[in-house]
Amino acid sequence: MIDQDIINASNATVMSDLRADYDSLGERLDRRGIAIDTVKDKVAAYGVAVPSWGVGTGGTRFARFPGAGEPRGIFDKLDDCGVIHRLTGATPSVSLHIPWDKADPADMIAKAEKVGLTFDAMNSNTFQDQTDQAHSYKFGSLSHTDAATQQQAVDHNLECIEIGEKLGSKALTIWVGDGSNFPGQVNFARQFDRYLDSTAQVYAGLPDDWRLFTEHKMYEPAFYSTVVQDWGTNLMIAHALGDKAFCLVDLGHHAPNVNIEMIVARLVHAQKLGGFHFNDSKYGDDDLDTGSIDPYRLFRVFNELVDAEGAPGFNPMHMLDQSHNVTDPIESLMSSAMEVQRAYAQALLVDRKGLAGAQDANDALMAQSALKTAFRTDVEPILAMARLEKGCAIDPLVAYRASGYRARVAKVRPAVAAGSSGIV
Ligand SMILES: [Mn+2]
Predict the structure, then answer these.
(1) Which of 4, 77, 226, 386 is least surrounded by Cβ atoms within 10 Å, i.e. has the fewest?
(2) CA geometry: angle 151, 162, 228, nearest 5 deg
(3) How far is the CA of 375 from the centre of ligand 1 (A)?
(4) CA 14, 16, 17, 22: dihedral to nearest 10 degrees?
(5) Which domain holds residue 77?
(6) For the chain, what percent of residues have pLDDT higher than 90?
(7) 418 found inside a domain
(8) In the predicted model, is pLDDT for residue 75 greater than 60?
């Protein structure tokens, strides 16, 4: 896929610069009482999952503009995901979406092993109709007024667990589009009861060592109300279902300016933080590349995560979930994975003792300064050194473009027709 010689040649041009930058940063961090190698080792051990659907070009309600060499199916997607991990060393697993990624599990395991990947959480889909399905999800799925439609949605989720067990996955993420478009269209209480009844049936089918994640979203595809509207509803669901149920936080699923890092802290406190879907947004659920709009917010989320390390029940899963409409998805996912790593590395630099002291002394300025000092630190040499030591690329984007991978796969993957509306 990507020849090691290409990576080595790309690394050779910047190797001595990186060593000088790493040593210089090491000296500066040493003055702050921070050992750079410890931070680097933690960053090297960190991984964020890639969504299988992320390697295809996304779209909006207006249109979708296909890119060259788009993956034709799950095996092409695994190739692309393998390239991302090969160059960054930051994305060791893939999150599958059923039914989009249905194939023989044995073949999928063989392919994943070949490209150096494992399988992250399984994602069910009851927000669109498949050609062969008996009941439509136009008016909902797990919370539908019709029992047979509800049952169909439950059965689909159980099938996702069954497939996931064969692949070595340990979690199911349920996402529903259920809600309403008009005031009065649904009875909020009865719709939520139906949702809980259905989800409890899915939960009952969960293996002992699995976790179930539910994801809140304030609007879309339903525009007046959604059945899992906010983190409060999400927490109610996790509590109602049981010990294996946790809340997933998708950064784009909140109103603008919502204090997401505080939601994270509350879910940690409740021991119900299941994990993340990382992306960025300016106006709504824009699904923009992680860290592209507000890297400081991403840092503030990671500040809470580093603060919570070692807390009881704290074991969140991390995944990217974004839509690439105008970029090569492989490039976007590589740079997004590195943005997540960057936020983590910066959060590791926070002087926690100094911060706690300033907080206890009600010294607001010094408290925020503790955060800003860490955020302002250019940790790129740490990230790059972690990659180099894994045999990955110091600059994954440069190495990727030098490899000619996209042009190569474009020759064997036929162009996808344009014009369709995209998945957002
Ligand atoms: Mn999501």
Answers:
(1) 4
(2) 50
(3) 26
(4) 120
(5) 4-412
(6) 96
(7) no
(8) yes
Check residue 421 and give its pLDDT: 53
What angle in degrees, to the nearest 10, is found between the helix axes of 364-376 and 352-360?
160
Q: Is residue 419 part of a domain?
A: no
CA of 6 relative to ligand 1 center, distance in Å? 34
Task: Decide: 163 and 211 in contact? Cβ < 8 Å.
Answer: no
What whole-number distance in Å separates Cα of residue 375 and Cα of residue 338? 15
The pLDDT assigned to 25 comes to: 98
For ligand 1, the distance from its centroid to the CA atom of residue 243, given in whole angstroms, is 22
The residue type at 194: R
Does the pLDDT value for residue 1 go beyond 90? no
- Distance from the alpha carbon of residue 268 to the mean position of ligand 1, in angstroms: 19
CA of 360 to the centre of ligand 1 (A): 36
Which residue matches tokens 């194939």?
103
> pLDDT averaged over the chain?
96
Does the predicted TM-score (pTM) go above 0.90? yes
Kindly give the distance from the C-alpha atom of residue 319 to the centroid of ligand 1, in angstroms, as a whole number.
9
* Structure confidence at residue 28 (pLDDT): 98
* Cα 215 to ligand 1 centre (Å): 7
Q: How far is the CA of 44 from the centre of ligand 1 (A)?
A: 25
Bridging pattern class, strands 245-250 and 211-215: parallel
Q: For the chain, how many structural domains are there in total?
A: 1
Residue 100 Cα to ligand 1 midpoint, Å, equals 16
Q: Buried b / exposed e across 291-310, counting CB within 10 Å, b at 16+?
A: bbeebebbbbbbbbbbbbee
In a domain, 300, yes or no: yes
* Per-residue pLDDT at 423 exceeds 70: no
Q: How far is the CA of 224 from the centre of ligand 1 (A)?
A: 19
Over residues 372-385, the pLDDT tens digits come to 999 999 999 999 99
Once rounded to an integer, what is the mean pLDDT over residues 228-254?
98
Compute the distance from residue 34 Cα to the ligand 1 centre, in Å.
Answer: 35
- Which pLDDT band, with edges at 50, 70 and 90, does 424 fall under? very low
Residue 216 inside a domain? The answer is yes
CA distance 50 to 267: 23
Rounded distance from Cα 399 to ligand 1 centre (Å): 29
Residue among 168, 173, 295 nearest 237 (CA): 173
